[in-house]
Structure to design on (431 residues):
């Protein structure tokens, strides 16, 4: 990489005028003024100027040269770095994990439709299911049962954060909070809606990227039947195939995303094409979503700094940080959300990352951030959103059960799911 050096007198003059960057070459000035480029170092243009204030021209130039050298060294280099991760497509079981089991393998034929796994009439026993709902294992069951909402687990631990989200579907099935009436909403969604547990979808733990197309296909199939998928992850990587599936069914430009999350998941230039901390980046880059159809609720903490917010806002995204909710109150913010969504695509997908909640209410989040939303704010916001917009899908992500030896995180997760269920039931009742 050719680097043009400014003359020493020019650098000295710039230093005297108070701008530590003015004496640098154009290339170095551009780097130290580029918020997106500096983001990967945990820097901003303002931080750089503070760090370089009072330094000599030679020190400033060496600082910029050091960053350029790091960037150059971290780039992919043909001949040094493998461009692909080796797989074995000749393996006999290449697609074994996603091969569906034919009906003819059932020992006893049954009529299509969801079926109960309960043993007792009045006791919660037998095989646990989401919302104590009957089980559906094939699309024919969803059709025959006229299933309106189907829970499906995607037990994926993929990328950043503290691991264990793959156990969330199993843990939430065995926890209370998804059954019965919503006291504040005044409705029992289990009475008004046809609900089923659609089991778990297969993921490839050795190469998680491989499983994303299968998840996308299966979620799209559910949505195409008129069923609202309630996807339980799994980390936030899963938002990519979930939203992509909605676009496959409803069309590009016809789906809006509301993402409850402490993190924007909008990292740039990751060394993997897909990960939880760049899911939104990929959805925008692949034109599956327009920036104007994205609403981020509850951004909080170091990963949601000014540079990230400014970049997303420039793309048209609407950003509602936690501080705004605390200042204006959840009701005013929820009203604003609904009003804003009414001006965009009719179909709304809600993605709820547990990191948006304060760790006091959800310590078992994969990437917890102190100072998040309280459950008393999150529950009514989710309920109102699902009651007053056309929610076509919902995912609850990044619950890591092993991080919480109590029941608090699992119960909070189920109450969030129940809040959206109640909202959908209220919308149906009013229609």
């Amino acid at each position: 990489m050719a680097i043009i050096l400014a003359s020493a007198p020019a650098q000295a003059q710039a230093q005297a005028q108070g701008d530590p960057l003015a004496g640098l070459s154009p290339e170095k000035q551009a780097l130290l003024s580029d918020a997106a480029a500096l983001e990967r170092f945990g820097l901003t243009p303002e931080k750089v100027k503070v760090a370089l204030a009072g330094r000599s021209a030679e020190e400033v130039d060496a600082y910029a040269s050091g960053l350029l050298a790091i960037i150059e060294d971290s780039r992919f280099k043909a001949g040094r770095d493998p461009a692909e991760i080796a797989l074995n497509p000749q393996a006999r079981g290449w697609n074994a994990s996603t091969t569906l089991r034919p009906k003819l393998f059932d020992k006893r034929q049954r009529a299509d439709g969801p079926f109960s796994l309960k043993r007792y009439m009045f006791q919660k026993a037998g095989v646990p299911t989401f919302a104590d709902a009957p089980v559906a294992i094939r699309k024919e069951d969803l059709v025959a049962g006229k299933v309106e909402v189907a829970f499906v687990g995607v037990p994926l631990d993929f990328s950043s954060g503290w691991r264990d989200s793959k156990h969330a579907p199993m843990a939430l099935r065995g926890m209370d909070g998804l059954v019965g009436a919503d006291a504040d909403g005044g409705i029992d969604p289990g009475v008004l809606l046809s609900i089923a547990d659609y089991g778990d979808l297969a993921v490839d733990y050795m190469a998680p990227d491989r499983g994303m197309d299968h998840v996308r296909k299966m979620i799209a199939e559910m949505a195409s039947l008129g069923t609202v998928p309630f996807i339980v992850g799994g980390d936030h990587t899963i938002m990519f195939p979930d939203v992509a599936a909605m676009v496959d069914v409803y069309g590009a430009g016809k789906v809006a995303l509301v993402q409850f999350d402490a993190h924007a998941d909008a990292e740039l230039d990751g060394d993997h094409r897909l990960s939880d901390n760049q899911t939104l980046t990929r959805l925008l880059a692949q034109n599956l979503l327009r920036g104007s159809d994205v609403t981020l609720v509850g951004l909080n903490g170091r990963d949601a700094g000014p540079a990230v917010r400014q970049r997303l806002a420039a793309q048209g995204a609407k950003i509602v940080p936690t501080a705004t909710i605390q200042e204006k109150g959840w009701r005013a913010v929820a009203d604003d959300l609904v009003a804003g969504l009414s001006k965009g695509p009719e179909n709304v997908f809600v993605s709820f990352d547990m990191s948006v909640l304060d760790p006091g209410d959800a310590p078992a989040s994969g990437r917890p951030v102190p100072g998040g939303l309280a459950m008393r704010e999150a529950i009514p916001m989710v309920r109102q959103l699902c009651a007053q917009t056309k929610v076509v899908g919902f995912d609850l992500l990044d619950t890591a059960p092993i991080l919480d030896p109590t029941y608090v995180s699992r119960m909070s997760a189920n109450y969030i799911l129940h809040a959206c269920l109640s909202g959908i039931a209220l919308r149906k009742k009013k229609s």
Observations:
- The longest strand covers residues 390-397.
- The chain is about 40% helix and 10% strand.
- Strands lie at 149-154, 195-200, 228-233, 255-260, 294-299, 318-321, 347-353, 390-397.
- Confidence is low (pLDDT under 50) at residues 1-8.
